[in-house]
């Protein structure tokens, strides 16, 4: 601007600078100088009033050079920014920033904190590799590489066929796009400097803001992305600009993740009030979402659509309603295995714990321990095929087999039960015959203990100890029990808890179609892995999914992919809040359970206490296991199952015999023993029932005075000797009935 005169205007202390442009109204804020009560001043004009020719040429040339260098600089900035953004995105640059931040913190940290930081850095390096690998395989990356290659090939072909016109036009278009991108980046940088953001960074707490790939935050008009402003870490929809949802993988800062989540929730018409406590986890993102009306069930209902908006895998969006904040839910977006850093199972030495002790069987998605005990607990495990059902049972049995005051029994009518851990169980049943006899024996023992505990001074429930151990029963594939087996198991579920005979049964489904009885909601402790929606409702109650119980969203394993096998939702675990939290049951390394089973078996397995066994003699059998007789007293239908002694039960199930005699002597057992002695004294291997009555009465008249065939038959049957059988030609008779020595010996 060339100044000619300075003339005084009203008021007298304001001076206006005049140039060659048309006169403008007086402005006291722009283009004027206020002087403190100064007199008018007059300035002589320049000699010519315009610059010389060489000066004007230099001025025009300088301006042209400035424009040229500015355009080149902005074009280079646009190319560099685009390449940098793509490179940072494809190589997981945001994770690299986290690693650098932890390294900086490590320099001034104490030794213990350094060890923690080293572990976090190792996890982040692994995550960086996973994220980069996943992004290399994204559809957008593959499509971009394919289109780029096709464009280069097309350009080469066009150059050969048409000439240099095509590459020149392409270069112009590419340069123009780079120039516009550079202008936009420069504008963003200038805006950041003006707002003081050059030192503050991206709003996430440190360092200059990393260039990002375009996201849904762009309104499409070339303006900068609008990130939601937070107040104390709380993000509200009101702070959002125009835009559409975008994949969560593009979010590299807390602000961007909050924007991504807010846009997706609003897209699904969820009445979101705010998003807070947004955190970057090694496995993905976590935040708290507050709704302004209704409940967080709206989030749960929209999980499938949210996964589409976030562009994540099935089951990756996992909302968890909060118990203490009814309007809030903890929202997790899973990008990798959240249990990758879960601790290994703890080692339990043989007979090192009590059945009442709580021990870790798994970890929650937040890293909290899942502690369990089966003292006084009836439990169920529900999981589809491939859901990790056997692993859950093994985790529970790994505790009971290490107890000094518990006996473990393993029943499975369709499989191998506890598998590698099976040898640590005192008894295993695999056939219907074995299982029915075991369940009847357990039912009679429970009823006997109900009458006995008052005599032993135990009070209202049986107190487990090494002398009076608890007996924990695991029943895998419960639906495949026989009809009689289910009836006996049902009765045992009703009476076993207070008598220290807890039952844990497992099934692939929780509905009455599987269980035959509506017992899924009756049991106190429920552990549910991958299953169907109807199973969730059957176990946790109708409407449980709206409260966050989502095992049906877990995926069972396949032959090549473990997926969510062993992931569970648990309710009724003693000492643990009934919250819809996802847990993972600890998986034992290959071969470890077999070594533990051998170690515990070698340490010695417990047998039932003599007090309980003695009391069983005074308990009546259920009507449905008794034989049926006609009007004349003849047996019309044999008993479907008989009550065996503990020794006979072990022999039936092919288990190791007890180290010493366990079953106390009773009149029926004494009768069997005396019948064996009578046959051995007579030197025969069989004897008619009538003849046996005569011999016993002669051997011990003080004991068998008044003995009849009917009484002897009942005594021998109750003692395990069975019923009379045909003996072949004997005592001048063609085929009389009686007892064989081998059968009586087997009873003992």
TrEMBL record:
Annotated keywords: Membrane, Transmembrane, Transmembrane helix
Composition bias type Gly residues, residue spans: 197-208
Protein origin, superkingdom: Bacteria
Record region (Disordered): 20-53, 183-233
Membrane-traversing stretches: 140-158
Gene3D superfamilies associated with the record: P-loop containing nucleotide triphosphate hydrolases
Record-given protein name: FtsK domain-containing protein
Higher taxonomy: Bacteria, Bacillati, Actinomycetota, Actinomycetes, Kitasatosporales
């Amino acid at each position: 601007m060339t100044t000619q005169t300075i003339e005084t205007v009203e008021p007298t202390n304001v001076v206006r600078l005049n140039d060659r442009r048309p006169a403008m109204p007086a402005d006291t804020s722009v283009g004027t100088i206020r002087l403190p009560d100064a007199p008018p001043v007059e300035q002589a004009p320049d000699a010519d009033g315009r610059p010389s020719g060489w000066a004007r040429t230099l001025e025009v040339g300088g301006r042209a050079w400035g424009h040229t260098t500015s355009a080149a600089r902005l074009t280079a900035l646009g190319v560099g920014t685009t390449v940098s953004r793509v490179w940072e995105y494809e190589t997981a640059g945001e994770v690299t920033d986290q690693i650098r931040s932890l390294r900086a913190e490590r320099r001034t940290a104490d030794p213990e904190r350094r060890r923690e930081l080293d572990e976090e850095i190792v996890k982040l390096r692994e995550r960086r590799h996973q994220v980069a690998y996943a992004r290399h395989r994204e559809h957008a990356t593959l499509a971009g590489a394919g289109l780029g290659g096709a464009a280069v090939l097309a350009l080469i072909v066009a150059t050969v066929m048409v000439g240099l016109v095509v590459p020149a036009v392409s270069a112009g278009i590419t340069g123009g796009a780079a120039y516009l991108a550079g202008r936009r980046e420069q504008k963003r940088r200038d805006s950041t400097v003006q707002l003081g953001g050059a030192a503050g960074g991206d709003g996430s707490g440190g360092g200059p803001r990393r260039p990002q790939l375009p996201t849904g935050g762009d309104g499409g008009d070339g303006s900068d992305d609008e990130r939601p402003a937070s107040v104390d870490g709380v993000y509200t929809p009101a702070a959002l600009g125009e835009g559409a949802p975008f994949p969560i993988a593009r979010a590299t800062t807390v602000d961007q993740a909050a924007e991504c989540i807010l846009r997706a929730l609003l897209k699904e018409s969820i009445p979101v009030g705010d998003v807070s406590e947004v955190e970057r986890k090694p496995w993905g993102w976590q935040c708290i979402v507050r709704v302004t009306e209704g409940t967080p069930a709206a989030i749960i209902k929209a999980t499938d659509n949210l996964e589409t908006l976030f562009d994540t895998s099935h089951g990756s969006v996992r909302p968890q309603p909060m118990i203490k904040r009814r309007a809030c839910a903890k929202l997790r977006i899973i990008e990798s295995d959240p249990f990758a850093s879960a601790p290994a199972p703890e080692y339990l030495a043989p007979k090192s714990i009590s059945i009442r002790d709580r021990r870790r069987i798994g970890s929650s998605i937040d890293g909290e321990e899942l502690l369990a005990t089966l003292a006084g607990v009836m439990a169920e495990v529900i999981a589809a095929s491939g859901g990790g059902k056997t692993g859950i049972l093994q985790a529970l049995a790994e505790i009971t087999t290490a107890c000094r005051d518990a006996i473990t029994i393993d029943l499975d009518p369709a499989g191998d039960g506890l598998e590698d851990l099976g040898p640590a169980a005192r008894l295993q049943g695999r056939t219907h015959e074995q299982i029915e006899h075991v369940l009847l024996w357990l039912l009679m023992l429970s009823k006997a203990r109900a009458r006995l505990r008052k005599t032993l001074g135990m009070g209202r429930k049986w107190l487990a100890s090494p002398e009076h151990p608890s007996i924990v029963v695991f029943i895998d594939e419960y639906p495949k029990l026989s009809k009689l087996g289910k009836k006996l198991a049902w009765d045992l579920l009703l009476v076993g808890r207070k008598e220290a005979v807890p039952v844990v049964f497992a099934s692939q489904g929780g509905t009455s179609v599987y269980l035959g009885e509506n017992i899924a909601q009756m049991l106190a402790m429920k552990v549910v892995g991958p299953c169907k929606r109807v199973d969730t409702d059957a176990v946790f109650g109708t409407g449980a999914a709206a409260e966050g119980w989502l095992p049906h969203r877990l995926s069972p394993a396949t032959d090549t992919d473990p997926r969510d096998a062993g992931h569970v939702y648990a309710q009724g675990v003693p000492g643990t809040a009934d919250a819809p939290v996802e847990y993972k049951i600890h998986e034992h390394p290959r071969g470890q359970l077999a070594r533990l089973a051998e170690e515990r078996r070698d340490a010695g397995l417990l047998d039932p206490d003599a007090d309980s066994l003695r009391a069983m003699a005074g308990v009546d059998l259920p009507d449905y296991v008794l034989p049926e007789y006609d009007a004349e007293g003849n047996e019309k239908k044999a008993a479907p199952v008989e009550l065996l002694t503990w020794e006979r039960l072990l022999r039936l199930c092919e288990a190791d015999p007890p180290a010493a005699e366990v079953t106390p002597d009773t009149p029926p057992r004494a009768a069997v023993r005396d019948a064996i002695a009578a046959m051995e004294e007579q030197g025969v291997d069989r004897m008619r029932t009538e003849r046996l009555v005569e011999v016993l009465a002669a051997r011990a008249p003080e004991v068998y005075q008044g003995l009849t065939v009917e009484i002897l038959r009942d005594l021998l049957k109750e003692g395990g000797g069975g019923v009379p059988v045909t003996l072949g030609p004997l005592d001048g008779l063609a085929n009389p009935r009686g007892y064989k020595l081998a059968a009586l010996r087997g009873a003992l």
